[in-house]
Amino acid sequence: LFISIHANGSTTSRASGLEVYASRPLERQEQKDPQRLRNHDILFGKLAIQRHDKSVENIVTDMLYSFKSSESLALARAISEEMGQETRARNRGVYKAGYFVLRNTLMPAVLIEVGFLSNPREERQLNSNQYRQKIAEGISRSLREYITRLGY
Predict the structure, then answer these.
(1) How many whole angstroms separate alpha carbon 106 and alpha carbon 40?
(2) Is 119 exposed, middle or buried (0-12, 13-18, 19+ CB in 10 A)?
(3) For the whole model, what pTM was predicted?
């Protein structure tokens, strides 16, 4: 799993809450991103399949992307729910985005926005060790739930 944790910002100080992002479907130019192509070469270099068979590579790529997308979304939902319960922060929900860190991984990936630094109340909370601990506990609990759901 790949988890990227951030603090959000807005042009208004009223914006508040947490958001979790999973990857949206890739646009054509994103599919040709150099990092994505390097990851593709790394992956297919380690698989025991005949190299350069584009039909097999396309099928495997589609299967892996479908798995990654559905699992990223499931993980994002679990994190959003658990963090919202743990922190009692406004839960702005789960979204799909094309952020580099989401689209260029070989594993399920999420990006978490834990609050708005542009909101004075949330900035104070994010500066609090206790609040950051609640965030960590919410993420940790959601990971345990997610992994249990997978049968591990």
Answers:
(1) 8
(2) buried
(3) 0.82
Q: What is the per-residue pLDDT for 121?
A: 97
Six-digit token pair at 3? Answer: 């988890």
Residue 91's DSSP bridge partners are: 18
The encoded tokens of residue 16 equal 């508040």
CA–CA gap between residue 76 and residue 93 (Å, rounded)? 9
Residue 48 CA from chain centroid, whole number: 29
Q: 10-residue block means of pLDDT along the chain (152 residues)?
A: 96 97 79 74 71 72 79 94 94 92 86 97 97 96 90 78
Report the alpha-carbon distance of residue 75 to residue 145 in Å, rounded.
9
pLDDT number for residue 51: 62
Other CB atoms within a 10 A radius of the CB of residue 79 amount to: 24
Q: How many angstroms separate the first and last alpha carbons of the chain?
A: 14
Query: Using CA atoms, how far apart are residues 115 and 101, in angstroms rounded to an integer?
Result: 19
- Does residue 96 contact residue 16 with C-beta atoms inside 8 Å? no
State how far the Cα of 12 lies from the Cα of 33, in Å rounded to an integer.
33
Rounded to an integer, what distance in angstroms lies between the CA atom of residue 130 and that of residue 55?
A: 52
